[in-house]
Known about the structure:
This protein has 5 helices and no strands. With about 100 residues, the chain is mainly alpha-helical.
Amino acid sequence: xxxxxxxxxxxxxxxxxxxxQALKKGDLEAAMVSAKAAEKNNPGFxxxxxxxxxxxxxxxKPAEAAQACRRALDGQPALIGERRKIQELLGRIAAKK
Length: 97
């Protein structure tokens, strides 16, 4: 706790929330900023990569989005439903290529 880890975790959680809200509003630039901030605050967390994949897919960057999806899946999503959603996104990306 003294090393700031919990503070960074909370910051990343807020970044992810902000990013999801921005994505819902169609603000891809703000969502990207939030995804990168979340990764900086909590490196390697699968939800960071998942948000990044969503943004990249909507930006028309399927190769980068697929790579982000694979990183998210490698991060061992905590819930089966989350894993399925990431896999579905990966499927949509593959269909667009």
